[in-house]
């Protein structure tokens, strides 16, 4: 009896040292969850409504990137990238399926949802989306540059097939997986820091 009583006395000061400990945040109400879902859908819809503009911007950036690397004297026209090859102009079109626009919808929708329910701050959600977007755009630019390089190396048809099916798929897969991991890490690190502040 005495040993048990003494152990309970020794434990009590631990809790007494944390008078400023904050209670855990309550669960959001159903109404707020519904509104957060609508915010997420709205954010995703905003991205989806501008997919063609995003593809056009990627084509413009790809032409500048390819030209800067010295792969070809590339030019862009809306969502098409053209460059000289074997005394003729060839190129490719950045379609909606080849653009990063569709890949941006899930992280934007999720970040907007978590921000609205109070799980992440506005700044944290903005940083996560911005970093993910930059990484996805950079990966896609590398893939498009690989298409141009492959065409110049193996010819138009064979180079396009090898780069689009094999090389491009590997680059895209690695980029999407890396972006998803980084997005989750940035979100969870922000929540971990806030939870640590609540405990200390």
Automatic annotation (TrEMBL):
Look up and give the organism this protein is from.
Plantactinospora endophytica
Give the residues annotated as coiled coil: none
Query: Which keywords does this Swiss-Prot/TrEMBL entry list?
Result: Membrane, Transmembrane, Transmembrane helix
Claim: Cytoplasm is one of the keywords in the record: no
| Name of the protein in question | Exosortase/archaeosortase family protein
What ranges does the record list as Low complexity composition bias?
11-20
Q: Where is this region: Disordered?
A: 1-25
Give the transmembrane ranges: 33-55, 89-118, 125-146, 166-187
């Amino acid at each position: 009896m005495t040993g048990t009583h003494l152990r309970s006395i020794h434990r009590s000061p631990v809790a007494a040292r944390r008078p400023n400990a904050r209670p855990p945040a309550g669960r959001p109400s159903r109404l707020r969850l519904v509104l957060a879902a609508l915010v997420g859908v709205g954010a995703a819809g905003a991205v989806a409504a501008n997919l063609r503009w995003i593809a056009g911007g990627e084509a413009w950036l790809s032409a500048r990137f390819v030209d800067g690397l010295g792969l070809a004297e590339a030019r862009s026209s809306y969502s098409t990238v053209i460059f000289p090859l074997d005394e003729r102009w060839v190129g490719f079109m950045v379609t909606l399926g080849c653009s990063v626009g569709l890949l941006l919808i899930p992280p934007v929708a999720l970040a907007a949802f978590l921000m609205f329910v109070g799980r992440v701050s506005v700044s944290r959600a903005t940083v996560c989306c911005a970093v993910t977007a930059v990484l996805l755009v950079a990966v896609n630019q590398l893939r498009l540059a690989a298409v141009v390089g492959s065409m110049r190396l193996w010819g138009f048809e064979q180079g396009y097939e090898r780069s689009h099916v094999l090389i491009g798929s590997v680059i895209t897969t690695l980029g999407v997986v890396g972006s998803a991991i980084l997005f989750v890490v940035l979100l969870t690190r922000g929540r971990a820091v806030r939870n640590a502040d609540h405990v200390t």
